[in-house]
Amino acid sequence: MDLRELVAAMFLFALIVMPLESLQAQSVRPPANAVNQGIDKQIDEQIGTSNTLGTNSQSDYWRDLRHGKDGLATSGQSGRKLIQAQGEQWRIVRKTYIVKYGGWVLATAIFLIVLFYLIRGKIRLKAGRSGETISRFSLPHRTAHWFMASIFILLSISGLILLLGRTVLMPVIGKNAHSIVASAAMQGHNLFGPLFIVALIWLTFMFIRGNFFQMADLKWILKGGGLLGPHASAGHYNFGEKGWFWLVVIAGSIMAITGMILEFPWLAESLQLLQISVIVHAIGAIALISAALGHIYIGTLGMEGALDSMTTGDVDVVWAKEHHDLWYEEVTGQKVANPEAEGSQSIPDHNQISAQSQTTET
Length: 362
Description:
Layout: H1 3-28, H2 37-47, H3 58-66, H4 86-120, E1 133-135, H5 139-173, H6 175-207, H7 215-222, H8 239-263, H9 271-302, H10 308-311, E2 314-316, H11 317-323, H12 325-332, H13 350-360
Antiparallel strand pairs: 1-2
């Protein structure tokens, strides 16, 4: 048999055998409606029924997960919590309470300041300026104050954009512009945040002397700071100034701690700590900014002569007598009989005042 005959025989054999194998395979194939109950039962025991929700309805299933029900995760994450339920609670608190009522608190503070100005007007010196001054704050004191003020204003503006921008700013400037502004605010907030800690430590060190509460502060409170009745005597700092100082120190420290946790999230031990830090940071910011608005008003537009102490460092003698008579007496050694009416009477030598005030300045 030559080669051509051999090839032809093999081809003929293949044509006969292949249909037989096909028929044999069809004879052992189960019908379409057949079920291998043993295999299906084994699979059900391993991965559950074909209904992945089991006997629970769709709403019950997700409600359990949202409330932190344990489950086996298949994504490789550690733990048994499929959904961190506090995340939804945090979102609701931030959106429903912090953003909504925080904005109203700030608006109310501005409204009360404007109303007070319209009713009370600028608090002027009853006896007028004398032309003689007394030193109140040194250059290091004023530098620490303005450094803190600058950082605080930058953080307040950027923080309010991040907190209220989506609600207040975005409808006005649009989504695209808001995204740019919000991104810049976030970068600026993160940049100046650590400087706030430096400013806070410096401010505390420079101003803590004289800011502890005394019996004179209780009398100042009972007289409403002089706004509700007769003159309220005060030392170097009155009760309002002391309250503002300690609010900055205490709330500022809380803001610094929570701010560092948010800026460096790996410092947090859990996601819950980050969520709590966001809420506390926002509440502290609203409280500080609202109080700062009152402080800024009194120190500038609200009271005649008050700004001088943080610009030149010197205040008019009449201003010292009318608003901080106990401090004036301590510095000069002269009794102020009637701070509201004494005016320019019994004004000591200016050189003597400057020399004495430098030794008692805080």
